[in-house]
Amino acid sequence: EAGVAQSPRYKIIEKRQSVAFWCNPISGHATLYWYQQILGQGPKLLIQFQNNGVVDDSQLPKDRFSAERLKGVDSTLKIQPAKLEDSAVYLCASSLRGGTGFYEQYFGPGTRLTVT
Amino acid sequence: QKEVEQNSGPLSVPEGAIASLNCTYSDRVSQSFFWYRQYSGKSPELIMSIYSNGDKEDGRFTAQLNKASQYVSLLIRDSQPSDSATYLCVTDKLIFGTGTRLQVFP
């Protein structure tokens, strides 16, 4: 079974520029997550989708970050405009289901973003 | 602020020893807890989950949960150099700790 795919793997941009990340979850996984992991910290949940609906986006900086999940499959995360503090690894994960039950998350390889 | 606290380490243990990793959490509503392993430069992978008070064993790994003390731990028996990684404690509210870096030396 193919894992979670993400692209690009690396991105370097200047502050105030925009950037977009793409994620393709494991086939059949209803729930998709975007995390931000700053060096030396644990991942922080930015947004959780159940199919193509948003379950939790309470920690998404909505003034500059946006995300969508098209037709309940692929997802894109956008930052516009980027700030220096956005430098991090952006991880996409998917799980068969979400909600209050147990859900094993499978992570993609991540996109390492450097903002200069 | 819901938090998960872990000692960042590094925790250094000799090969063959027991490594003990600890985690405390502030959100009493959380019922399930997970341990993820993250090798340097790689993505996290799930190694253990625990839902009830007490111990849960899986091979060389044992997870322990004490909800009254809001405490979760992971024991790794017969530690191997390949266990060297950062171990992340996670609640079912998807709150990750900062991780404990484990180093197992030959």
Describe this structure in words.
The complex is a heterodimer of chains A (116) and B (106). By secondary structure, chain A is mainly β. Chain A has strands spanning 5-7, 10-13, 19-24, 31-37, 44-50, 53-56, 65-69, 75-79, 88-95, 106-107, 111-115. In chain A, a hairpin with a 5-residue loop joins strand 7 and strand 8 (75-79). In chain A, 35% of the residues are buried. The mean pLDDT of chain A is 93. In chain B, the strands form two sheets. Chain B has a five-stranded antiparallel sheet with strand order 1-3-8-7-6, with no helix packed on it. A five-stranded mixed sheet of chain B has the order 2-10-9-4-5, with no helix packed on it. Chain B has 106 residues and is mainly β. In chain B, a hairpin with an 8-residue loop joins strand 9 (85-91) and strand 10. In chain B, 0% of the residues lie in helices and 52% in strands. Chain B has strands at 4-5, 11-14, 19-25, 33-38, 45-50, 54-58, 61-66, 71-76, 85-91, 100-105. The interface between A and B is medium-sized, with 18 and 19 residues.
Query: Could you tell me the radius of gyration of chain A in angstroms?
Result: 13 Å
Task: Please state the structural category of chain A.
Answer: mainly beta
Proportion of residues in β-strands of chain A: over 45%
Straight-line distance between termini of chain A? 37 Å
* Count of separate DSSP helical elements of chain B: 0
Task: Please state the CA-atom Rg of chain B, rounded to the nearest Å.
Answer: 13 Å
Largest sheet of chain A: 7 strands, mixed
Mass-distribution shape of chain A: globular
Give the SSE string of chain B: EEEEEEEEEE
Strands of chain A, count = 11
Helix content of chain A: under 10%
Span from first to last CA of chain B? Answer: 40 Å
Query: Strand arrangement, largest sheet of chain B?
Result: 1-3-8-7-6
User: How many helical stretches of chain A?
Assistant: 0
Number of strands of chain B: 10
